[in-house]
Amino acid sequence: MNTALHTSIPVDLDDYPYSIEVGFGLRHQLAELLKPYNKGQMFFVVSQDTILKHYQPVLDQLAEAGFRFVTHVVPADESAKNISYAEELWTAMVEAGCDRSSMLLALGGGVVGDLGGFVASTYMRGIDVIQIPTTLLAMIDSAIGGKTAVNLPAGKNLVGRIYQPKMVVVDPGFLETLPTRNVVSSMAEAIKYGFIKEKRIFDLMDERFDDMVALDDQALILDIIASSCRIKGDVVVNDQFENGERRLLNYGHTIGHALEAIHAYQGLYHGEGVLYGMKCANHISWKKGLLSDDEYQHSQAALDKFPLPELGEVDPDQVLEIIGHDKKNINGMLHFILLDGVGQGIVRTDVSPEEMVASLETLKTGARLA
Ligand SMILES: NC(=O)c1ccc[n+]([C@@H]2O[C@H](COP(=O)([O-])OP(=O)(O)OC[C@H]3O[C@@H](n4cnc5c(N)ncnc54)[C@H](O)[C@@H]3O)[C@@H](O)[C@H]2O)c1
Ligand SMILES: [Zn+2]
Predict the structure, then answer these.
(1) How far apart are CA 194 and CA 31, in angstroms?
(2) Which of 82-86, 266-270, 325-329, 330-334 has the highest mean pLDDT?
(3) pTM for this structure?
(4) Do the beta carbons of residue 20 and residue 33 sit within 8 Å?
């Protein structure tokens, strides 16, 4: 269905085509959207108390429509992405009588989506999963593309699979109850799509930043979210297993992840790390002559609109050390994403440690053309 406020975006993967349904109020139509999948089997819902506190009626409609389902909650933070919770879910699924025809519904943000997707991908060698993202990050990024994972003490997302969902149901109405900092920091991923793929999104995010933060213009929110979903979906179709184009999605993430790690994943949200990381990547792009002076200053000014916590002293050696261990560092070769103009991300393997350190300096001084 395509109406003014409901868009269906195809993710045309050869073996696993699916759609991303985007629309305000879709959570009230969940039973209808899931109806074609209901063959009387057991549905297993993974969520968190923080979400069900607001959205229990979303599940109540399934009961009213005759779905058989059980709900299991996990902790409402990153600690849930642990193999012990995967085991807890597998066990609960056996106890609930889930079989190979069962379907898992992941109702939550990236944590629920990554854990739920991983559990679905492994339970009885893989059952169907539908992602119902409730955070902006999950809506425009993590629920699309099939990356699932749990963490190890040695690092985040070290165990997981690429396992595509059957459908993604995106209702921006969920954002009303999400803390503003969570929403605004995740807008980093939307402006990222503008930088690497579609200048129109960058311009929209730049010009309508305050309206986006206020979340009061439904057409604008829908445009940004649906466009982001379309871009992510297209990139995944072109390169599901991240050997080429999908790497572009790591724009801002090389240095961003390092800053997140230094803050031990506390104090700095993922999107905030990425915002700092994009500032650094833009500086390197400009120094290499890929961005003009105007493009560089305009890009940094757009990023400066985002409220960011103080970084404090950053030890460049520590950043380089962490980047050395980064997953994007394959066979000793660092794939760094730069911009060849706004709207045009490129993969480069010639970014030097000195260029990265110089870019970190600009986080203190701002975008001076010197
Ligand atoms: N799979 C991927 O491709 C991918 C991509 C990016 C990030 N991730 C992962 O995503 C995770 C972060 O996801 P996130 O930012 O969505 O955080 P999150 O899932 O931890 O959610 C943040 C908090 O908001 C609460 N919450 C969620 N929706 C809510 C709502 N509508 N109203 C009120 N509270 C709500 C949650 O309970 C949680 O406490 C990380 O683990 C990261 O590794 C995965
Ligand atoms: Zn990200």
Answers:
(1) 34
(2) 82-86
(3) 0.95
(4) no
DSSP state of 78: G
Cβ neighbours for 19, distance < 8 A, ≥ 6 positions apart: 8, 9, 10, 11, 167, 168
Nearest by Cα to 101 from 71, 74, 125: 125
CATH architecture of the domain covering 180-365:
Up-down Bundle (1.20)
Determine if ligand 1 sits within 6 Å of the CB of residue 162. Answer: no
Q: Which fold has domain 6-177?
A: Rossmann fold (3.40.50)
Question: Ligand 1 atom 44: the closest Cα is on which residue?
Answer: 142
Q: Answer for the pair 103, 130: CB distance below 8 angstroms, yes or no.
A: yes
Q: What are the extents of the domains in the chain?
A: 6-177, 180-365
Bridge partner residues of 337 (DSSP):
347
Q: Measured from the CB, is residue 256 less than 6 Å from ligand 1?
A: no
Pocket test residue of 142, 147, 247 for ligand 1, highest count of atoms within 8 A of CB: 142
CA-based angle 129:131:132, to the nearest 5? 140
Whether the CB-CB separation of 277 and 254 falls below 8 Å is answered with: yes
Residue 3 DSSP code? B
pLDDT digits (tens, 9 = 90+) for 57-116: 999 999 999 999 999 999 999 999 999 999 999 999 999 999 999 999 999 999 999 999
- CB of 170 within 8 A of CB of 225? yes
Ligand nearest the Cα atom of residue 250: 2
Angle between helix 199-207 and 218-238 (nearest 10): 150
